[in-house]
Amino acid sequence: MPEKQKSVCEQKNFEYIFKNFSESIRNFIYYKCGDIQQAEDLTQEAFIKLWDNCSKVVFEKAKSFLFTVANNAFLNEVAHKKVVLKHQTTLLKDRTNITPEFLLEEKEFMVKLKTVISDLPVKQREVFLLSRIEKKKYKEIAEITGISIKAVEKRMSLALITIREKIGNI
Questions:
Q1: Which residues pair with 157 in a beta bridge?
Q2: pLDDT tens digits for the chain (170 residues)?
C-alpha cells in the first residue's frame, strides 16, 4: 500500500509548518527590509496564502512556497515604495552636504546587494543570512536547517562566489 502524502490542509501539518518555518521566513524578510512589523505582516500573509492554497501545495514544498510568496510580497512593497524613496532622496539633497552622487552610488549599491542576495537560491540565501546577519556558527546553521556542516560550508561558499561575481568592482 503506498504511503499517504501529508496534506498541508490538515491542521497538525499546517501547525508543524508554521512552527518550523515562520521564524526563518520572518527573519529572511526582516533582513531585507529592516522593519520587524513589516516582516511579521508579510510572514503572516504568506501563511494565509498557504492556507488558502493548501490543497495545491505539496507538503514537502511548503517551505519553498512560503519563502517565494513572502519574497514576492516584499518585492511588491518595494516597488510601491520607490516613488516615496525618490521624494525622500530629493528632500535629503536639500538638507545635507552629502553629494547627490554619493547618495546615488550608495542607493545603487544597496539595491544591487539586496537584489543579489534575494536572487540567491533559497538554500544559499538562508545559510548566508543566518551566518552574516544572525552571526550563527556553521554548526548552529546545520542544526537549524537540518543539513550537515559540510553542506552549510558548500552553500555559503557558493553564495559568496555569486555575490562577488554579481557585485563586481563596486
A1: none
A2: 445 678 888 889 889 999 999 999 999 888 888 889 999 999 999 999 999 988 898 888 888 899 999 989 888 887 777 767 776 666 655 565 677 788 788 888 888 888 888 888 888 888 998 898 888 899 988 988 889 999 999 999 999 998 888 887 54
Report which of 115, 43, 104 is spatially closest to residue 75, judged by C-alpha positions.
Answer: 115
User: Contact at 8 Å (CB) between 50 and 8?
Assistant: yes
CB crowding 116-153: b at 16 or more within 10 Å, else e: bbeebeebbbbbbbbbeeeebebeebbebbeeeeebbe
